[in-house]
């Protein structure tokens, strides 16, 4: 403790020099007058270290005093952790595929998974709607492993607004032990609905091509010069205007989009 107090009483530069000379002079202060008040500290630190017969302990203490941050980091304990690297979307339609991104660290071989889960009002899982599982992943270093998973919201899933008794959906990234025991998890809310109406698409679909599309999306000739609106899977409007038979979608993000015309015709397309 005397050595630590001595280290803390001086500027960084003076303290480093004090410790260095104290270790190698073994209690004898250096004859060169580095600082008029350092004699006592040389004796204090040097005596403390010279009384310890274990040279490795002396070396560890020396390095801890010289670089306490590095020593602390080197002794950090690895734990099971999992977290989103990109927040999953808070809204989804049925019949949509989502790619979610996350990272994890593991203390030993474990199962890692992401899922869409239906829960009761208290957050207790009832049933998974979709899962992406990585079985028997090996232990990691302290540097997280970054991965992704694809989760599909199938047709027939009950919209969030129609769930009874406070039930709800959520995204779940988890680490599982033997017997699928939950060890660690991260959650994010999810609302499943149909902003444009599932039945509407069944009755008034229009054909778009190519679909999936990367740059130019062509509309059929039977809806010329109509006002159209394009929304993403979260219901945000990404295009609105009079079309001339083609829409430029190269700047759209990858994902599923919905198109509706003023006359009520609808379509769904995928941007890749």
Describe this structure in words.
This protein has 272 residues and is of the alpha+beta class. The protein has 3 domains: 2-74, no CATH class; 81-192, Immunoglobulin-like (Sandwich), CATH 2.60.40; 198-271, Immunoglobulin-like (Sandwich). 22% of the residues lie in helices and 37% in strands. The chain has 6 helices and 14 strands. The chain has helices at 2-8, 12-25, 39-50, 55-66, 68-74, 198-204, and strands at 81-86, 91-92, 96-105, 110-119, 125-137, 145-153, 168-176, 182-192, 216-218, 227-232, 237-242, 246-248, 255-261, 266-271. The strands form 4 sheets. It has a 5-stranded mixed β-sheet, with no helix packed on it. A 4-stranded antiparallel β-sheet has the order 11-10-13-14. A 3-stranded antiparallel β-sheet has the order 1-3-6, with no helix packed on it. A hairpin with a 4-residue loop joins strand 10 (227-232) and strand 11 (237-242). Helix 1 packs antiparallel against helix 2 (12-25) and helix 4 packs across helix 5. The longest helix has 14 residues, at 12-25. The protein starts with a helix and ends with a strand.
């Amino acid at each position: 403790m005397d050595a630590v107090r001595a280290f803390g009483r001086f500027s960084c530069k003076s303290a480093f020099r004090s410790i260095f000379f104290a270790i190698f002079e073994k209690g004898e202060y250096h004859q060169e007058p580095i600082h008029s008040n350092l004699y006592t500290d040389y004796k204090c630190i040097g005596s403390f270290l010279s009384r310890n017969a274990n040279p490795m302990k002396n070396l560890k203490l020396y390095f801890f005093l010289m670089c306490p941050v590095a020593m602390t980091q080197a002794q950090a304990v690895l734990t099971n952790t999992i977290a989103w690297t990109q927040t999953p979307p808070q809204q989804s339609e049925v019949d949509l595929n989502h790619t979610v991104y996350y990272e994890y660290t593991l203390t030993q071989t474990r199962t890692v998974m992401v899922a869409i889960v239906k829960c009761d009002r208290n957050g207790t899982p009832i049933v998974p709607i979709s899962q992406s599982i990585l079985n028997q992943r090996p232990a990691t270093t302290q540097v997280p492993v970054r991965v992704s998973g694809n989760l599909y919201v199938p047709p027939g899933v009950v919209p969030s607004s129609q769930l009874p008794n406070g039930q709800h959906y959520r995204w779940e990234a988890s680490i599982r032990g033997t017997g699928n025991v939950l060890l660690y998890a991260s959650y994010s809310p999810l609302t499943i609905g149909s902003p444009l109406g599932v039945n509407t698409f069944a009755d008034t679909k229009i054909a778009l091509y190519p679909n999936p599309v990367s740059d130019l999306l062509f509309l059929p000739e039977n809806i010329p010069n109509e006002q159209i609106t394009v929304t993403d899977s979260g219901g945000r409007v990404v295009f609105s205007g009079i079309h001339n038979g083609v829409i430029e979608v190269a700047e759209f993000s990858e994902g599923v989009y919905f198109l509706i015309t003023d006359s009520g015709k609808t379509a769904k397309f995928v941007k890749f």
